[in-house]
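User: I'm putting together notes for a lab meeting next week and I want to include a structural view of one of the chains we've been expressing. I don't have a solved structure, so I'd like a prediction I can at least talk through. The sequence is below, exactly as it appears in our construct file.
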Amino acid sequence: MANHVHALLTPLARIRNITRAVKGIAAQAGNRLLHRTGERFWQDESFDHWVRTEGEFIRIQKYIENNPVKAGLVTQAENWPWSSAFK
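Assistant: Thanks for the context. Below is the predicted structure for the 87-residue chain, given as structure tokens.
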């Protein structure tokens, strides 16, 4: 997605630590590609949700995989190369 990221994880570490690591690496790479230094890359907030059932996991996974379709970036979720649906 052009303006946000979805991730569905089974964490083995504290979410705060995972988020900080992922955002740090992505911000450095993004700013390097955009030829920016010392500028904020991410907004402060994030939305965390604990998945409690397998059914909820599948529902959220399908929502995430369908996001690029809903945004008009691809016609099928399987065509988005950064998705678990990609084939």
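A couple of points you could mention at the meeting. The mean pLDDT is 88. The first helix runs from residue 15 to 33.

User: Perfect, that's what I needed.
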